[in-house]
Amino acid sequence: MPGGLTTDDHGGVHDPSRPSASLALDRADSAESLPRLGGMARPDGVVIVSERFWAFAGTDGSLRTGEMPAPPRALRHVPLVRGLVRLGASVSPLFRRSGVARPRERWLLAAAVLAPFLFVFLPERLSLVAGIAVTVGLVAWMLRGRTLNLHGAEHRAIAAAEARTLGSTWRGDARPSRFSPRCGTNFAALVLPVTFAFERLWVLPTAVFTPVAVTLVSLALTMELWQLVQGSKRRVAKVFLVPGLALQRLTTREPALEETRVALTALAAVLELERVH
Fold first, then answer.
1. C-alpha pair distances (Å), 178 with each of 144, 150, 230, 256
2. Could you tell me which residues are beta bridge partners of residue 191?
């Protein structure tokens, strides 16, 4: 199995010269610190990412790893721009040629993302209908197959890392929450009201590029708000997460232990890459 890990009790082939996922997880539980982790669920597996590496564990026992893009250092501290850079980096495992999506899927996803920018040339009513259709289609495509269960597994694996219960979660003795305050669902729940408000507050003359500018600035503002909420210890800040956490009841399902182990396998691979490098 590529990636330097085996999943000895998860359908993989055991190689004594390589650390098993469970061994890597037990070691991580005793580590002084762990990198900040994120992830995404796919119909056939789970992606876990750190700032430097990503790993995809498939439900078929496969494991793929790679490096995350390193954005220019100067852009990491520019307000608004840094949010768009971070957002772009978060989806890079999908769009990269060596990533987790097949070529046809990459083209489909790229078309769905770019389509709203082309709708500005359509009549307003037709643009609205087309936008709704693309959004519904994209959501249905992203949540197909076992994605909902694996989404819950992704959250559980990351919560286990933060609580240092990775080993017990692998064995099924611990079951961290399947809901996550850092889920992209929470971000999506913030984007909608921010975009709506920004459209109403737009004071510059309307031009062909206005919808594109509104979308980009709204995403950048939401990322700034997102980072502020995530870094705040005040309870009032957590109010902004309530809609997203409620929405996660629809975008996640309770994962089986087998599905949780898929996410933990990807997480263990990322932690091993971080440890080695």
1. 18, 10, 18, 11
2. none
């691979």: which residue's tokens?
Answer: 269
Residue among 48, 1, 13, 56 at smallest CA distance from 28? 48
Question: Rg (Cα) of the chain, in Å, rounded?
Answer: 20
pTM above threshold 0.85: no
Question: Among 225, 245, 242, which residue's Cα sits nearest to residue 155?
Answer: 245
Separation CA 79–CA 223 (nearest Å):
10
- Helix orientation angle between 184-201 and 242-251, rounded to the nearest 10 degrees: 130
Do the Cβ atoms of 20 and 223 come closer than 8 Å? Answer: no
Q: Which residues does 39 contact at the CB level (< 8 Å), separation at least 6?
A: 46, 47, 48, 49, 154, 157, 158, 263, 266, 267
- The amino acid occupying position 125 is R
Whether residue 71 contacts residue 85, with contact meaning beta carbons closer than 8 Å, is answered with yes
Q: Which helix (H) or strand (E) holds 65?
A: strand 63-67
Token output for 145: 């197959």
**Residues 52, 154: Cα–Cα separation, whole Å:** 18
CB 75 within 8 A of CB 82: yes
Alpha carbon 195 to chain centroid, angstroms: 21
Residue type, 27: R
Place of tokens 């307000």: 79
pLDDT tens digit at each of 277 positions of the chain: 344 565 443 333 333 334 588 899 999 999 989 999 999 999 999 999 998 999 999 999 999 999 988 777 777 778 778 877 777 777 778 777 666 777 777 777 676 666 656 665 666 677 666 666 766 666 676 677 789 999 999 999 999 999 999 999 999 999 999 999 888 888 878 887 887 777 777 666 555 566 667 777 888 888 888 778 877 777 777 788 888 888 899 889 999 999 999 999 999 999 999 988 7
